[in-house]
C-alpha cells in the first residue's frame, strides 16, 4: 500500500470548451464549486487476465462522491500534460500498475453531488490490462476489488447510487460500443 498524497484541491486543472480547446486554468476546488467549470479529465478501466474489472471505492474524505464505487482510476491531466500521459501516470500513482492503455472515447458530462459541488468534465476514457495485483494509494482509495462484467452490470442496475455518475455513463457506453473487447477483458493480441 502507498499513502502518498498525489492530488490536492489547489492543483491547477485545464479549462476547455466543448470541442476540447484549452481556454484557461483553474484550481481543482474552484472547478468543482457551484455548477462546475468544464475541465479536462481522464478515466481508466483496468482488467485482469480473467477479464474482471478493477473497481475502487473512493476514499470517504473525497469531496465529491466520497465512499462511492468507481472505475479503476480517474483524475485530471496537469497543465501541459497530454491525456494519455496523465492516464498512465495516474494508474501508476493510484494503483501501482504499469500497463498499455487504449483510448476508447471522449465525452462531456455534468453531475452534482448534492450541495458538495459539481463535476463538469470533458473526459477521455481508456482501457488496459493488468498483469499483477494493484498496490493501491490509500489516500485515494478506500477499498477495491476485481469484478466480472456481469456482476458489475447487476450491481449498477440494482444500486446505481452506490456508483459514481461517470462510471455509470462510461460503463453503459463500454457495454454498448465495445462488447467484443469487453468479453476478452481488453486483452491485447500479439
Task: Describe this entry's structure for a reader.
With 190 residues, the chain is an alpha+beta fold. The protein has one domain: Nucleoside Triphosphate Pyrophosphohydrolase (Alpha-Beta Complex). It is 24% helix and 33% strand. The protein contains 5 helices and 9 strands. It has helices at 28-32, 83-95, 149-158, 165-177, 179-183, and strands at residues 12-16, 22-27, 39-47, 53-58, 69-70, 73-75, 101-112, 118-129, 141-147. Strands 6-3-8-7 form a 4-stranded mixed beta sheet, with helices on both faces. It has a 3-stranded antiparallel beta sheet with strand order 5-4-9. The chain has a two-stranded antiparallel sheet with strand order 1-2. The mean pLDDT is 92.
CATH superfamily: Nucleoside Triphosphate Pyrophosphohydrolase
Question: Class, according to the CATH hierarchy?
Answer: Alpha Beta
Helix content: 10-25%
What share of residues are in beta strands?
25-35%
Structural class of the secondary structure composition? alpha+beta
Q: Assign the CATH architecture.
A: Alpha-Beta Complex
What is the number of E strands? 9
Radius of gyration: 16 Å
What's the order of the H and E elements? Answer: EEHEEEEHEEEHHH
Average pLDDT taken over every residue:
92
Largest sheet strand order: 6-3-8-7
Number of domains: 1
Shape assignment: globular
Low-confidence stretches: none
Task: Provide a concise account of the structure shown.
The chain has 190 residues and is of the alpha+beta class.
